[in-house]
Design goal:
Blueprint lengths: L9 H11 L6 H13 L3 H6 L7 H15 L4 H5 L1 E4 L2 E4 L12 H10 L7 E5 L5 H9 L4 E6 L2 H14 L4 E5 L12 E6 L32 H10 L3 E10 L5 H10 L3 E7 L5 E7 L3
Parallel strand pairs: 3-4, 3-6, 4-5, 6-7
Antiparallel strand pairs: 1-2, 7-9, 8-9
Length: 286
């Protein structure tokens, strides 16, 4: 009886892949996530089964993914999955990749919604549905309307809601508040809109190179979408309702100025865990 091919053992296949990703700070993590996805296992399984021999099909598929990752393709698009808040979401190149820093926007939103309150909430530019679904999960008595101009992105969001069994979110195709003309005013509006300047160098770096530019670029200064949302928000909010916006690290003062000029009160900015401006908001006056 011949000995098993050690080059196809989990530990050996991972070692080879990490070498191919040499120079990337997350080479080991990326390789483990991609192999776990190919095998439909979790990363803990890889440790417990490090000496298992993989079949040729799994090795070949893994090699394809490692080649794409080495070329810069985002791990989330290669696996089709990304964790956000407490949820596991499907993502595609039609949606932005949900990021941990956006969880601050979710936290601020749920802090404003009393447990059990039947609040009405709008999420503008929902993408994969990450923000709306996270809020809906934490505040099941609230009613949410998630808007996106991209029909392809909305299909992903609707599928995520269905797969997660979250039923208190309505999905509407359209641009910002134009999509909500037939809806009653909201207690809270949240958005992570495009906020990069058209010539921002980030478009040539990292995962952003592969994400939909329409969901990222917003004019010469990156604030065009913010202006559109802020200018239309008070008419779509109840008295005392809140508008919360995620923005770039250097845009806090600009977004606060927009909110103040539009008549919002209690205007403020919240910082992420690194102490950087991340979310700004204000309250519609009573």
């Amino acid at each position: 009886m011949s000995a098993p091919d050690s080059t196809r053992q989990v530990v050996a296949v991972l070692r080879t892949a990490i070498g191919q990703l040499d120079g990337r700070p997350d080479a080991r993590t990326d390789a483990e996530i991609l192999l776990a996805s190919v095998l439909d296992r979790d990363r803990a399984w890889l440790i417990a089964h490090r000496d298992d021999v993989l079949d040729d099909a799994a090795v070949a598929r893994f090699a394809e993914l490692i080649e794409l990752r080495a070329a810069g393709h985002p791990v989330a698009y290669l696996t089709g999955r990304r964790g956000f808040w407490t949820l596991e979401l499907a993502v595609t190149p039609d949606t932005l990749i949900p990021r941990a820093e956006t969880e601050l926007l979710v936290q601020r939103a749920i802090d404003l919604i009393a447990v059990g309150a039947r609040s009405r909430i709008a999420d503008l530019g929902t993408g994969s549905g990450a923000i709306a679904l996270a809020i809906a999960c934490e505040r099941p008595h609230a009613t949410l309307v998630a808007v996106d101009v991209s029909a392809a992105a909305l299909r992903v969001a609707v599928s995520n809601a269905r797969n997660l069994g979250i039923g208190n979110v309505e999905f509407v195709e359209g641009s910002w508040f134009d999509a909500l003309r037939l809806h009653d005013p909201f207690n809270l509006v949240v958005s992570n809109p495009p906020y990069l300047a058209n010539d921002d160098p980030h478009f040539f770096l990292g995962d952003v190179r592969f994400e939909p530019r329409s969901a990222l670029a917003s004019g010469v200064d990156g604030l065009d979408a913010m202006r559109a949302i802020v200018s239309g928000a008070r008419a779509r909010l109840v008295d005392g309702g809140w508008l919360l916006l995620e923005h770039g690290l250097t845009q806090g003062s600009g977004v606060r100025a927009l909110l103040a000029s539009a008549g919002f009160e209690s205007v403020q900015t919240w910082h992420d865990m690194a102490g950087r401006d991340r979310v700004s908001g204000g309250m519609s006056p009573d």
